[in-house]
């Protein structure tokens, strides 16, 4: 192996995609489930350079002839370069986290910072916060040790912190929807930063956004940044403009990985346009109404007849949560998806939302849609739902001409969203 990543579990790692997109060299994912396997791998030294992830960032230091002072102070190495049989260790997680915070205007100077978690990444983010002038850095744990000055999550709420940093796996795929801190009860917050990058927006970030926290950002850009700085060590050369490379790779990765969800009125063209978009973008097409029917075994009119709208909406939410946490999909949603906030949270966590806006008079009456019984019913429904569609959407796609026109508008909107 020339270049790659070692760690206990690497099933959902983006590192291979990032490095190969960035530099073009072959990058291997090398899962080493046990410490014995990790030690055997490191003893052989059969690689040019590697990245190291959980749980071997400390263990690898035993095999390094040289450790960068910053990595030594943090107590973790995530980048190792083999120089004529001698291993040199560095920590680019520090650089990646610093870049993420700088890019999004997170100012630590004079601030109180609470860091959720006590693992290795805690030390990295704490070092950045202190180096950038934080007045106080507090540690939060589910099982706090008072002798170490650690706080419980309940105590963190009343800490007066301006910045929250999550270094725990809470809310990480596939166990999405987990959030242990009540950020809505922390009125002084200026920034919430989560090092988790899958999903794109964890429950913590979604709640911070809902609470109006000025900066709420996940860890994808940190992941890309640390990879860019690691590649500089791998190749022993600097990129001409590392921040530009980080922006480019982050945008490309989000474009490739995130879901695109289509919302809008019944018969607005979501399914037809969605299939066209999925084909153009090389994504898996998912029709949530069809998935409800597959799972339940009954048609939508039959579900309505037996369980009413509430019963149908519960099934809709279950399917939205099932598909919303995955990636690389084009999801066509039912017209009433916006009636429940939890559906929108599920769609936003790992995707963007496009509102397909078709004139009411062009919508179809009936067609197996229980709530589209008449044009008057459609007009009333559209008046109620339109504000919800607009509030939920990242972009509005007019569908008042040909489908090709709508497809072109959707592609332009996606370009603007992903390149911004």
Automatic annotation (TrEMBL):
Which superkingdom does the taxonomy of this entry point to? Bacteria
Protein's UniProt keywords contain Repressor: no
**Cofactor: how and how many bound:** Binds 1 Mg(2+) ion per subunit.
Per UniProt, subcellular location reads as: Cytoplasm
Q: Which InterPro entries match?
A: Aminoacid_DH-like_N_sf (IPR046346), NAD(P)-bd_dom_sf (IPR036291), P-loop_NTPase (IPR027417), Shikimate/glucono_kinase (IPR031322), Shikimate_DH-bd_N (IPR013708), Shikimate_DH_fam (IPR022893), Shikimate_kinase/TSH1 (IPR000623)
Known catalysed reaction(s)? Answer: shikimate + ATP = 3-phosphoshikimate + ADP + H(+)
- Identify the metabolic or biological route this protein is part of: Metabolic intermediate biosynthesis; chorismate biosynthesis; chorismate from D-erythrose 4-phosphate and phosphoenolpyruvate: step 5/7; Metabolic intermediate biosynthesis; chorismate biosynthesis; chorismate from D-erythrose 4-phosphate and phosphoenolpyruvate: step 4/7
EC class, as a word, reads: transferase
One cellular component GO annotation, for this chain's record?
cytosol
Q: Which GO terms describe its molecular function?
A: ATP binding; magnesium ion binding; NADP binding; shikimate 3-dehydrogenase (NADP+) activity; shikimate kinase activity
Q: Name one GO biological process term.
A: aromatic amino acid family biosynthetic process
Q: According to the UniProt entry, what is the EC number of this protein? A: 2.7.1.71
State the needed cofactors, names only.
Answer: Mg(2+)
Which residues does the annotation say bind Mg(2+)?
271
* Residues where ATP binds: 267-272, 369
> Where is coiled-coil annotated?
none
Q: Where is the Shikimate dehydrogenase substrate binding N-terminal domain?
A: 5-80
Its keywords, alphabetically, are: Amino-acid biosynthesis, Aromatic amino acid biosynthesis, ATP-binding, Cytoplasm, Kinase, Magnesium, Metal-binding, Nucleotide-binding, Transferase
Q: What is its main location?
A: cytoplasm
> Where is substrate annotated to bind?
289, 313, 335, 385
Quaternary structure, per UniProt, is:
Monomer.
The family line of this record is: Belongs to the shikimate kinase family.
Main role? Catalyzes the specific phosphorylation of the 3-hydroxyl group of shikimic acid using ATP as a cosubstrate.
Descriptive protein name: Shikimate kinase
Gene name, per UniProt, is: aroK
